[in-house]
Amino acid sequence: MDASDEPRAVTPRVVVDRVTHRYRGGTVALDDVKAQWPHGTIALLGPNGAGKSTLLRILVGDLTATSGRIAFPTGVGGHDDEGGRSGLGYLPQKASWPGHFSVEEFAFYFCWVHGVPKRQRASRTAEVIEAVDLGRHAKVKLAALSGGQHRRAMLTQALVGDPAVLVLDEPTAGFDPGQRILFRELVGRLGTDRTIILSTHLIEDVESLATWVTVLDQGTVAFDGAITEFAPLGEGTRSGSSLLEKAYLNVLGVRS
Q: In this structure, are 137 and 29 located in the same domain?
C-alpha cells in the first residue's frame, strides 16, 4: 500500500468514554458506550429506545451518567473535559416556548441566558434569526409560525452562543418532505464551521449531511466510524432500498 493510501488518523472533537446510564428501577439506557466523534456532521442512529436521547442529554449536561464520561480533547468553549458545556448548543426533540413570545423576543431572551454581553444582544439576535431564515418573521409570535418555522425559531436559542458543537435531537421529526429538505439545507450551512451531532431515524438525513455514523442498539454501540466505512456494509443485499439503509439494517442484524 502506498503511504498516501493509508487511513489518516482522526482527531476526535468529542470522546464518549465508557458511558453507562441506569434509570430508577434499574432500566439500563446505555451500557458501556464508547465512541469518538471528529469534526463534521455525526449521525447518531438507532431504533426507538436505543438510548440516543439519553446519550445526548448526558453530552449537553442535562443528565449525569451513572458511570463513564464525555470529554472534549480539543476543547469546547474554553474547556477540555466533561466539566464545560459553554461551547455547546442543544436543540431538544420537543423544544417549545410560550407562544406569546415573538421570534425576536425569544432569541433575545436566550442571549441573556447564555451570557451574551448586553451591548451585543441586539446584533446577535438579528444574526441568529437571519441564520435560520426567519428574518421576515422576527416580529411574529411563536404561536403563529408553521411547524418548520417554529423548529427553526427554537434553534436560535442553540445558536446565540456561537457554539463549536451543535447537538440536534431528531430535528426533522414530524416534518413533511419539503420542510425536511429546507431544514437539511439549513443544517448543512450551519455545519460549515462547527461540529454537528445529529440524532435521527431518517436515512435521508444521513445521506444528505453525515460524514460520520454511530449506531446505537439497545443501549450499546453497534457501529462507530466514517460514513465511507459504513456505506459498504450495505453492499451485496437484495433490497431495493438505499445503500445506507441496507447498511443500517445489516448493522442491526435485520435482514433487508
A: no
- Indicate if the pLDDT at residue 80 is higher than 50: no
Domain that holds residue 219: 1-87+166-226
Q: State whether 176 and 144 are in the same domain.
A: no
Indicate whether 150 and 176 sit together in one domain.
Answer: no
Q: Which residue has the higher pLDDT, 234 or 111?
A: 111
Q: In what order do the strands lie in the sheet with 28-38?
A: 28-38, 12-22, 67-71
Which segments within the chain are labelled E, that is strand? 12-22, 28-38, 41-45, 67-71, 88-91, 165-169, 195-199, 212-217, 220-226
Residue the block writes with cell 418532505: 177
Cα 79 from Cα 91, distance rounded (Å): 21
Over residues 193-206, the pLDDT tens digits come to 889 999 988 888 89
Residue 23 to residue 31: CA distance in whole angstroms: 12
**Do 154 and 171 belong to one domain?**
no
CB atoms closer than 10 angstroms to residue 51: 24
Same domain, 4 and 83: yes
- Whether 174 maps to a domain, the answer reads yes
pLDDT digits (tens, 9 = 90+) for 9-64: 567 789 999 999 999 888 899 999 999 999 999 999 999 889 999 999 999 988 99
